[in-house]
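Bench notes, afternoon.
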Amino acid sequence: MTRLNRFSFLFALAVLFILSACQSTDGEYSPSGWDYRATTNASAQQSPKHLSENYNKNEIEQNTNNIQEASISSMSSTPVQPVRVAILLPLTGQHSSLGKSMFNAAQMAMFDVGHDSFELIPHDTKGSPEGARIAAQAAIKEKAQLVLGPVFANAVRAAKPILRSGNINMIAFSTNWHLAGGNTFIMGFLPFDQIERITGYVASRNLNNIAVIAPQTNYGNAVISAYRSAAPRYGLKTTDITTFHPQSSNLAPTIRSFTKYDERTAQANTAANIIASKQETKINLRQIPPPFDAILMPVGGDLARSISNLLSHYDIIPNQVRRLGTGLMDDAGLASENSLDGAWFAAPSPNTRKSFEQRFLSLYDYNSPRLSSLAYDATALSAILAQRGLQTNGHPSFDKRSISNPNGFAGVDGIFRFRPNGTAERGLAILGFKHGKITIIDSAPTTFQQSFKY
């Protein structure tokens, strides 16, 4: 397979996994709302350094040697044990390409911040709940002190009670927030921070009349719930919320009704008749004010193209009505779509990810799938927590308090921290499509020291 074909395959695969992560039951989202703002962190006291920058290999090796020497000199019968972290990934089966790429990213983190006393132990979930249960049991048997992964919600659901019985914390790559809590931390990209970020930014740009068109899916419901929570706080007026069946073969009637096309046509006819004194005049709907300033459309891929093209067809054009999105729009393939030109969406800054992507390509000769950064950051985080614990009390700091450090951490996808309920809070940028490229419209924050009020 050529490099180009391999890139196309892996890019498509990454998009597939991101979208499949936005389902419920056996996927990632629940239809019920969640007040994510009700569980906030303590105040941050300082800005986080990048995970690969605040790690001193020489210092941790020296500290480990000192601990071992102290153990020997005191004739301790319990020698210092290596730090063992298990990573549960689909290394075989349907999702093996993603699993192997995430493990490659984890090995990059090991090279950057690992040390001799730190062991990363891979276990294959085979992309199934049963495989995840077996992998979790193997992690306990091998005395893992922390577990990274699994990727998919059904695998996390299967592994969680087993690891809880072994008193082992898990940092999972899922986006199902209902699985967070207790011994489980959810590291995946959630829509709540994305909606908070985009609504705040839109309000600061005086785009006050907002409409929402979302699929009748659990992801769509989650976005609507988050938007309804955020919009009043930013003084936004919601002009319409429309949902549609995601498998609909013809969205034109829905978009026609959503854009108030017939009402606007009637207004244009009336205006034309008055101005022309009943003479035949060409109707220009674009002279009639659109019913909203911006449209929030939490979709990606071909669905984003279809909806935006239909909006333009019904004379809701991009330079009059701004398209708004979530991280599903973080797709370079959408940037060249004319009907999406000027769209804004909230996502991690590509600048913080650029070096990682370049190194991954150089090492493995293919482009990294989007989710591979989660494996890098989780592995680097576990190495940092191990380092801090070994330096202070001789064992890794994998407890809930250490993982939920309110100062947070800075990784490939920018700053992040875990809320008390186990979900990840992220500092996001506002990105946009401009002249066929993704550009940074508003930079991501670099600290949690102030409340995000965009």
